[in-house]
Amino acid sequence: MQDVALIILIIVGFVIAFAALWTGIVWLTSRLGGWADIAEEFPATGRIVGDTFKFCSARLRYVVNYSHCLTITVTPSGLHIIPMIFFRLGHPALLI
How far apart are the first and last CA of the chain? Predict the structure, then answer.
């Protein structure tokens, strides 16, 4: 019985530690790459309608590479860029 409780504790601890590490890395990526700075200048607002391209890539500040994780929508008002759901913390949608 004690072994089962220890295994459950290890699994729960791993999940919590992984989530905290992932959250920190994704947030730090938005700061190092400059996504947060761009989002202040070009926030996306309103409904987005246009041609959508999924799994696009981009590189910001020679530091951060968004490989195949961006969705870009071409609209009459500009390019709407948003990362996949797993990378959205600290990465608000952009409309450039």
Answer: 58
CA dihedral 80, 86, 90, 92 (to 10 degrees): 20
| CA–CA dist 73, 6 (Å, integer) | 48
* Residue 1 pLDDT class (50, 70, 90 cuts): low
Residue 66 φ then ψ, to 5°: -95, 85
| Length of the chain (residues) | 96
Across 59-94, b (16+ Cβ under 10 Å) vs e yields ebeeebebeebbbbbebeeeebbbbeeebebbbbbb
Show the tokens assigned to 34. 């400059």
> Each residue of 33-88: pLDDT tens digit?
999 999 999 998 878 889 999 999 999 988 899 999 999 999 988 999 999 999 99
